[in-house]
Amino acid sequence: MSTLEKIGLWALHKVDPETAHGLSLRALRMGLVPLSGPVTTTRLKTTIANIDLPNPVGLAAGYDKNAVVLAALGRAGFGFVEVGAATPRPQPGNPKPRLFRLAKDHAVINRFGFNNDGADVIAARLAHRPKSGVFGLNLGANKDSADKRHDFVNVLQTCGPQVDFVTVNVSSPNTENLRDLQGKAELSELLKAVISARDSLANTPAVFLKIAPDLSGAELADVADVALAQKIDAIIATNTTLSRVGLQSANKNQAGGLSGQPLFDRSTTVLAALARQLDGQIPLIGVGGVGSATQAYTKIKAGASAVQLYTAMAFQGISLVPKIARGLDELLEKDGFDNVAQAVGIEKEDYK
Ligand SMILES: Cc1cc2nc3c(=O)[nH]c(=O)nc-3n(C[C@H](O)[C@H](O)[C@H](O)COP(=O)(O)O)c2cc1C
After folding, report:
1. Which residue of 115, 239, 316, 320 sits with most ligand 1 atoms within 8 Å of its CB, as the best mutation to test the pocket?
2. What does each C-alpha distance from 225 to 38, 150, 218, 237, 328 come to in angstroms?
3. Mean pLDDT over residues 152-156, rounded?
């Protein structure tokens, strides 16, 4: 980490977390943050759902909800970037404060509730995305929507033409009843509608499904069945958790979704369980607590074809991204792998 980034992070941690988040976006937009540029090697190059990635380290949804720093994110070393969640209509989200640092735990709790500028505005920004690089959008539903399924389809139709993939996010804990869409019958209908809407777009973006870490074994098995039946292109495991086990920070009892280090073990266990059930039929993207190259590698060995991260950047800065990608390259080389794909899932049986 450069001295400039160290000072920047120190200053950001002196203000409330949502203000810090806004300032970090502004600094990126103004070109004040040193960025690595693309990171790739023959070992790091990989393909997921027919999308070629320069490296398997992606940005998770929720950092750039409104697609305001696409150009900078394209130069930050990520192999792929997911923006959003976007909902059909703009909405303010939950009352502030709604983002809490848990510094002792290297974690945060958020209950943003899909605050965003709405699909039309976000689609217009995505239309100016960088030509190179892989960009996707997290789909959400409006809080007051009577037909959440229709909301996902609506955002896909509006923004889908601009992106390489969309993510059906039925796992945010901050929109009432959203997680109910993870049930077998509901999920099946939802995915059917989304896939059919996707198939009528000229660019046919890949459709990913993002799940919660709090599902039981039986619920996970149902998700895997539905994902296979509907031919989902990839599953992202996982979103934030409602669990509060083992936390030390004063903010530990805030309502919302917990992300960062305490999520690592549970999200990796869920990832490995899915990897065992799916046995390579649907690729997986591992998310939750990734803050080092070793942790990214652990997710890959547990079954992830690629990883995403968010919370660790709040503690370690955006230079963490190229550091993880390069570190992963070294770890793969050390273990004698020619490419990422060879390491995917080699330890998935160890999580039983
Ligand atoms: C402030 C914040 C906002 C988030 N917003 C979204 C969102 O809109 N959609 C979504 O699918 N996930 C969202 N997430 C979850 C992340 O994409 C990711 O799944 C989760 O934080 C675990 O990864 P991490 O431990 O690397 O942060 C959000 C996370 C945070 C911390």
Report:
1. 239
2. 36, 23, 11, 15, 32
3. 98
pLDDT higher than 90, residue 183: no
Name the residue with the closest Cα to ligand 1, atom 6: 62
In terms of Cβ atoms closer than 10 Å to its own Cβ (0-12, 13-18, 19+), residue 42 is exposed
Task: Please state, in angstroms and rounded to a whole number, the distance separating the CA atoms of residues 346 and 263.
Answer: 21
* Radius of gyration of the chain from its Cα atoms, rounded to whole angstroms: 18
pTM of the model: 0.98
Q: How far is the CA of 57 from the centre of ligand 1 (A)?
A: 15
Q: What is the pLDDT of residues 291-336, one digit of tens each?
A: 999 999 999 999 999 999 999 999 999 999 999 999 999 999 999 9
